[in-house]
Structure formats: C-alpha cells, structure tokens
Batch of 2 targets.
Target 1
Amino acid sequence: MIQLNEQQRMAAEFEGKHLLVLAGAGTGKTGTIIARADYLLRKGVQPNRIAILSFTRKSAREIAERLKLSAPGGINKKEITGRTFHSWCNEIMHLYPDHFPHHGYTPLDEDDRLSAMALALGKNFRDSKKEKVKKEVVTAIYSYAVNTLCSLSEAILHVRYGNLEKEDEQVRQYVEEDRKLIAPVIKKYIDYKKERRYIDYDDMLSVVATQLERDEALRDAVTKRYRHVLVDEMQDTNPLQYKLLKSFVEGSHLFCVGDDAQSIYAFRGADFRTIHSFTEIIPRSEKLKLLRNYRSTQEILDLSNWVLEQSPLRYDKKLEAHRGKGEMPSLIHVEDDWEEADLITDGILDRVAEGGRYADTMVLGRSVWSLSKVEGACLSKKIPYVKYGGTSLMQSAHVRDVASAMRIVANSYDEIAWIRFLQLWDGIGEIKASRIISRVITLATFAEMISCLQQFEGMEVNAAIPATLAAVREYNDRPAQAMEAAVKAMQPMLEKKYREEWTSRASDFEVLREVARSSGSITEFITEYVLDPKAETTFKIGTKETDDAVVLSTIHSAKGLEAEIVHILNLNPASFPSSRTILQGEGAIEEERRCLYVALTRAKNSLNLYRNVRSLHTQYSDANRHEQLYFLNNLPPHLVKILVNGQEKKDFPAPFNPKQGEADFPDFDFG
DNA sequence: AAAATGTTGCTGTAT
DNA sequence: GCAACATTTT
C-alpha cells in the first residue's frame, strides 16, 4: 500500500461519481492517481476496466510502471497500462473496428504529415501578401482548428496574427484573405489522407470523439468497457480531448488530476481554465485540493512562488514546503554553452566521486537541441545519461528507409512511403519515382502490383524492387522477420548511402526487431511504433546495463519528474521568454512563465540556474524588449545566490549590450 | 533532362 | 540531422 496523507486518501477512496483533484507541484499528483488505481484494483475492479490517461508517453509509462510495483497480487499485471490519449483512441478503434472505417489506416507522424501537406500545398504557395506560406504554418492552423474545435478563421487569427489586435479591420481582412487561400489547401490535404488511407495524430482523437458522441450503442459499449477513466495533467486537456471525455460522463467515473499553474500545452490548444469550470460543466462532480508540497525545500518553493507572482494572471497558489528549509538556489553566470556544459558535468563527476548517484541529477532545457552541448560533455566524460524528448529512431533516415518497404506492404496506397522507397535505388529520382507510383498505386491487388513492376512498360525497373517487396510481404504477420528481410534486401543501397556510418546505424535494427517482435502484423507494428517510438536515448558505460544515469530532458518531458539536483540551461533574457514567444503575444509569454515554473519545481534539494552571456541578445530582435520581459528581472536578492566564476557576487557583470555599429562579439585576439 | 552530390541554414515544446 | 536550394555528374 502507498503512504498517503488525509487529503490524498480522501481522493483515492472517493466514492462519488466524478472527481477533480487540484494539486500544486510536488503535492503528490501522480502518487494520487496511482493510489486511486491501486484502490480500485483492491476493490476488485479488473485492470482492463481502468483507463489511465496522460499527455506524454513518458508520464504514461511512468504511471504504469509505478502502479505495477504497488498493485495487489493475484491480478494480471500485464493488463495495467498507462496510455496517451492517442494510443487509447487507437485501442478503441481496434476494439470496435466496425464503427471505424479508419481502422487499419497508416498513421502519419509529424514529418509525414508535413510531407502530405507539402503535396497539398504545391510548390510556391503564396498568400495574398505574396509571401510564401510554409507547410508548417498551414499544418499548425489546421491542427489548432481541429484541437480547439474552432473555425478556420479563428485558427488563422490565433496562429498567424496572435500578437495583433483582434478587432482591427486590417487584421480581419488579412484573416479573411488567408482563409480563402488556405481553405482549399486543407480540403486537398483531407481528401489526400482519405485517398491514401492515412490518419494523422489529430484524426485519431477527432474520429473517436465524434463517433462516440454520435453513436449511442458504441458509447454504451465503450463506457461499459472503461468504467474508470483516470486523467493525469488535466490542465493540458484541449477542447477535442474534453469532447472525448464528455462521452464518459454518463456511463463511467472520471477521476482527473491537474494544476493550472503547470499548463504548458496551450500550443496544442489546451486551456487551463477548463479545470476551473469542471464542476459546473460535469454534473455530479466534486473538487478536492492538495496543498502540501513534499518534494522541495522552502527556498526552492520561494523562488517558484515568486516567478508565478510576477504574472498578471492569478493562480491562487502558494506552495509550502513540508520539508522545511534547505539550500539557496544559485544563479550562475557563464560565458557560453560549453562552459555551462562543462560546469554541470564536472559537478556530476564530483558528486559521484563523493558517493552520490548519477540519477540524482537532472538537466533541463527548453528545447531538445539546447541539451546537445551537455550531451556531448557527458559522452566525452563517460557520464551515463538518458535523454528524453527529441528525435526517435523512427525519425532517423535509415529507419525510415527500411520502414518504407514495410509500409508499402501494409498499405499500397502509401505514396509517401513509395516516394522514399523508390528513390533509394540507383538511377531513380523524383521523376522516375512519380512515373512508377502513378501506375502502380491504382492497382487493386498486391500480386498485380508486383507483376506490373516486374514488366514495367517504357522503363527499365530494377528487378530487386519487386523482389524486395515480395520478400517483405512473406512475413506480413511477423514484423520482426519482415524487417530483417527488408534490411537484407536493401543493404547494398543503405551501405552506399550511409558509408562508414552504416555499421553503427545497422545496430539500431536489432533494437527495433525486439520491439517488432511483440506486434502481430506489419500494420500493427507501424501503428504502435508511430504512437510510441521510444524516443529516449540511453548511454551505457561499456556494455554494462545501468539504471543509474543522469537525466537530460526537455522541460515538457520532465513534467511529473523530480530530482535531487536540477540544472536549468540558458535562463537568459532572449530565452525566457524567447524572441519567438514575444511575437506571439501575451498568452504565449504566460505559458512560457509556467514552463519555467514547472522546471523550477522539479528540484528537491538543489536548484541551479544558468545565465549565459553569449545568448543575451539575438540578431533578430529588440534587446530592450527582451530585457524588459525577462522573467528574472527585479529578482529579490534573498531568493538566489549569484555566482560568477565560482565567486559569490552581489550582482551580475554588466549585461553585454553592444552599442550600435560596434562589433557584437567580445574581444578576440585575431593575432 | 534527370540524378547525384554539395552546401547552407534552421529547427519550440508533444502525440 | 535534415530540408531546401545550388551545383556537378551521368
């Protein structure tokens, strides 16, 4: 059994219909979800009747693992799963295939979705101002509209003109003109998906949410199946996910846990204010608060509270440390990213030399590549680490190459896979590939396709192309072998393409084969892998497997985690908030502030912030504005210890602020 | 004309 | 690590 305080126990053993638990950082949110699931299991609820939902794969996995440790004996622990909203929707489609024509479609990951949108856009798409519109922007607009259930105009206004005055006549005109141009493009993208049997991430939620709302029989069946729906990080629910949950209000029990101050997914359409109105919107629901922080020392919470107080928004939150006083957080002045990485990794080595663990330290960055210098320093100093967030194996070129052959076998309409697969072969480029695709993609059966490729009229087609596909097809029900066949057949080209890198890249397929082994078909493997591509990279010391490793993570992926020592990279003006955010208006800036708050509240004992001289200004934007908005402006001196070159100082060295016309780099000896 | 190779610049956070 | 663009080779 799990140790709980009075409030946590009340939540876990709640006997009413629906419950919302409002809980600040470190008050045991995840623990309460686990305790709730544990309580239900002990009461005899079958594990597959409980859906535990989260927004990131990592926290979903974390919950499942912790629950397995505490779960009572006599139950099948394999059936305990924590899942993302997306994988849950995929499961529902899988369980009730008759209600979903999209069942078995090829899921598009973010890169594929952009490729599909590029095809819909055509080259050189320009808006009414004759500016080139990027596929990324149109995709963001469409995604925002789907996730927030809003109109295309509202989405355009939010994504493209978020910082401008909504009521302005000129702005309205821009939006209207954009809408006229973009609407047909989006229609084309939607038609294209249907034609090619594609389903993107947003569709997975949208299809299931809509079908559940419409189809009473289905809703009955699904709510009977999932009696208890437990939602972690409720503040990150967007309107589409909320719509999905509403189908469960009548037949199931909702148990939601959240914290408005930790909402950092507004970019995905989340609105933390929905948790404020939870009890009004959901009938027969109650609210509970968890107040006491068990994680951090008071000094860490004082700084976190202060950051939140600077916001014009009111979060009605002041965390108090159950643990009492500790060490003061440090704000450390560094010259550049390399010094930053060096200081942090040296600190890790010192601690380990004194008998500490690698796993005591967590390094947080705003983006994945902000972690790269620290990663490099870990590699060169032989520090074991796990890196969360960022590109998974599936996004790396060699895996996509091999997967393309498997995808064609799974879904012969998959044009994006065809393009990639064909261009791997000698002498086939964009033009020849599209010629082949246009003929092959209309054929009804796999056999016809193969024979068409074998005797292709008007062009010499390498016989190895149909041979490869036929070989992969042999193992349709054994994805691990299918992958092996694909790698074998494609090896000569892959070796040529990746040259001396090939040996190290080839070892990735061994890892992937293990994953593939648990899937029953190629289609299933592709779907599961897109939904959970195991994005973490682990560095081991020698060949020894170790679970003691430094954690490198984005702030987003670190939500729900904690560590003794936390380092936060690049806490400079121009980074917090970033120049990009400043252009997006106040909402984005406030989200950025919450992001910082999430990062600060991960620390248990030691919190180290780095202020990096080199990134104090960027070439794009107005340094004054950055200075003005910097989240650590007017930081009261009693909250942090300022360190410059290891010495405690009263203040920072003067910010490096070049006058106009002056070189914007520090003195450098060119001799 | 099409493919292959080289270069530059840029990347938010997640599913 | 890759996409978009530029240049060289087939």
Note: The longest strand of chain A covers residues 603-612.
Target 2
Amino acid sequence: MTGKDARVMANDEQTQTKSERLRQHLVAVIDAGLEPHERLPTERDLADTFDVSRLTVRRALDRLERDGRVYRVQGAGTFVSEPRITKSLELTSFSEDMRARGLQPGSRLVRVATVPAGARIGYALGLSPAEEVLHVQRVRLADDAPICLEDVYLPRVLVPGLEDFVGTDSLYDSMEQRYGLVIDRADQTIRATVLDPGVAALLETPAFSPAFQVERTGFDDRSRPIEFAESLYRGDRYSYEISVFRRSGASQ
Amino acid sequence: MTGKDARVMANDEQTQTKSERLRQHLVAVIDAGLEPHERLPTERDLADTFDVSRLTVRRALDRLERDGRVYRVQGAGTFVSEPRITKSLELTSFSEDMRARGLQPGSRLVRVATVPAGARIGYALGLSPAEEVLHVQRVRLADDAPICLEDVYLPRVLVPGLEDFVGTDSLYDSMEQRYGLVIDRADQTIRATVLDPGVAALLETPAFSPAFQVERTGFDDRSRPIEFAESLYRGDRYSYEISVFRRSGASQ
DNA sequence: AAGTGGTCTAGACCACCCG
DNA sequence: GGGTGGTCTAGACCACTTT
C-alpha cells in the first residue's frame, strides 16, 4: 500500500515512476549550477536523501548517462558531463525538430490522393502492390522558408477519411488521436544528392543544389510498419547533429 | 562466495556478467530458429531456467529490446522482432563499417604533419590555437575504390611519436594500444554538399558530385575530447542506414 | 582501508492483457 | 482471475579508485 500511496501522492502533474521523477530532479539540479566534472552525491546518498532504493537511483543515473548528462567512474563517483552540442538522434516530427532549432514550423500542402501502393512502397509497408495507400505530399517550412519536400504514404485501411483533415491538423497528431497510430521507431536511409529542377523550384532553390534524400519506414510499438516517407531536404538549410556511442554488447 | 564462483566457473572464453551471457544466449536462440512475433519464455521462466534473478533476465531483455531484437507487451509477453534492415547508429571505425557492408577496407596516406591547432580545431579539442596537433589526411578505400577523404587531428601531447606508425597500422588500434586512447562517444555534424574539383580528383569522381561532409569530435570515457575529424564521403557510394526511436524521457 | 560504482538476489506490488 | 511485463525494495558482494 505504501508504494501506491507514494505514487498517487506525488502525482501533482504527471504520472511517472520514482526513477523518472528523480531523473528530472537531477537534471534540474545540474542545470541550476553544477559545473562540468563536478561530482554528484554518491548513489547511496541519493537513495537515502530521496528515500528510494539504490536500484532506483541507478535507473535514473543510467538514463542521465545515456543522455550524456553525466559520466561514471567506478570507484570514484558520478560526474557532470561537459555540455553537449548535439544530442543522440531521436525520432521527432518535423515540427518538433524545427522548434528545437528555434524555427517556426509550417507546411504547404501539394497533393493528397489515394493510389495503389506499387512494388516499392508496398514492400516497405508489407502490403500487396495493388493495395491502396494515402499519398500526402507537402513542402515543409521553417520561418516560412521551404526546408524539405515530403511524400508520406499510409496504408488506406489504417487511416480511412484522413484526407479530410490533412490540410488543417498535424498529420501525426491526427494519426494518433483519430486512429491510435503512434510511430515508435523508424528505419531511415539517408543519401546525399542534388535537387532536380522541378523539386528545386518547389523548394525555391537553384537546380542541382546539394540535398539530403531520406527514406523512412515508421513502425508502431509492435514493429508493424505504418508509414513510408520520402523527403528531400535542402542541404543549405538542414544538417544532422548526432552523437554516436561505442557499442557495449559484442556480436549482434 | 557463490557469486564469485559462478562468475569464474563460466568464464571459459570471456569475462562477462550473467546478464550479458544470458543476452548472448538469447540472441543465439532467436537466430537459431525463432520466427518473428514468436513469444519468448516469460521473464520468470527464464529466471528459473538459468538460475538467475528476474532483474538479471530483465537486464538482458532490456538490451535486446534496445537492439531491436525483441519487443515487449505488458500483460502479454516478450516477442521476437521482425528482422531489421538497419541498425541504430553506432560508433564504428571506417574499417568496421566497410566490413559490415561486405567491403574490403583500405587506406591511402596523403599527408602526415604536425601543425598548430588554429581556432576551429583548437576550439573543438579544447586546446589553445597555438597548441600542436597531428594532422593525418587519408583517402579511405572500399574494395580499392575511394570512398572518402578524411582529415584527422589529434592533440600532439596525447600521441607523441604516432606519425611513425600511421602508414602501417590502423590509426585507432595504434591510439588504443600505444597510448590507451579509446573513443567512447563522438558528436557528429553531417551536411550535404558537392565535391570541389580538387577533392573530386582525389576521390576519382566528377567535380560537383553529391557528397556528405562529416565533422566529428571524439571523446574518451570521461568526456574529454581526443580527436577532431573531417570527412567527405562520395554520395554515390555511401549512405547512412539508421534507426531512430521515440524518446521515452521527456524534457532534457 | 574506506568508499565508490557494477552486479546480483529474493521478494513484493502494480498495470495490463486475455496467449 | 491468472499470467504477463513494469517498478521497486533491502541487502549483499565484487572491482576499482583514492578524501
């Protein structure tokens, strides 16, 4: 009963685990004034202070370490990391991505249509080539300037009637709220290319400018494909900033 | 004492934790013949079978889930994932990367020199602009065809005498074996660009071909910068294949 | 020698799904 | 309701670094 009480008690704003609340608290403490390489309290001290088990403390610190906020040295302690410029690559919507870069996201609808999937898109989505998909083509904007041309393909059966809302709402908000579709993971292939004159015109940039070509297949939390997308990003206005880590486990 | 005995006993080949051994065992079981979406034994069953605690089982499954090998559904079970085409972005050397793509890695040394860091490289490495860095420029090959032009800068004080081995050994093997320098994490910025005529000639490709420009700062396990590198990858011969995940923790 | 993080145990309660 | 994964506890021993 104590477990449940504690959980309910502290839920002023959000339903969260103890370790997640502790993690957020530690982030606040670090941001409030700890210097890089300054030592945090020991795991046992934190456990005592916040009246949780040491395992719970370690879970919070594990996440902070994965996020690059702290590093740990066995026998010595846990220390604040040097501030990072880049974050690990995350699955974010275009809108979130632009806001994180301090830009105002926007969108210009080019085409909405129901079409047969065809071989390539059908293969990516695990559909027969004859099965219908909803095709949404948009020019994505940041501060009213074109950033990328995006073609999204969704299995028709998963999103009946979605075309009526495409112009107005966020596509992914609609998918989540109307159909319960949430993309949990996406596999991407990123290529370097140059823009065809037609695409270049849509993106208001010279023909043959450098660009990223991104193919993405989005999966739900049970690894079922629910989205295939192709995007062309202006190379002069977009870059990837990512952190990569040495793999711990061998083989795979 | 039982813990230590068990650890020593099973260390025929490697020194590993119980959860890591269990993880590798499960990978072998999955690869041996489990179908996608087939259910694994329950966590409690695995704990009994392998005579470990449930937490240890969960640690193994956590890693498999992060690697995309399994997915879990609360109340239902743990299931084998659909095979993945792409893996999460990992910190690998060029050589490992090429071997993973089934290509024979190679290298053509262009320049080795000791130079002042300058403002940009010094900033990235946390050095004064006047401090000396070792500059190694190489054309990296796959199956004897040029893939990228790579400029690596290392603080001179960290790698005294390295220039004598640059032509012969793997650069990162040398750094690790001679100086104990291991890159644990790297921050990268990836841009789309086209190749200057000079670089294009080195890479044996037409001028103004599409290319990736990659800036990388490598850090050791205590978040100290130990390497700055710039690479230009031929867009026709290189692409990024990565998985991205919905972030679990909020804020950050 | 003392203290730190790394790993593990045995047991408990919760939220969720229906094999 | 019974079984599943998700979270948490209190305690233990190990490997490692160092006030």
Note: The radius of gyration of chain B is 23 Å.
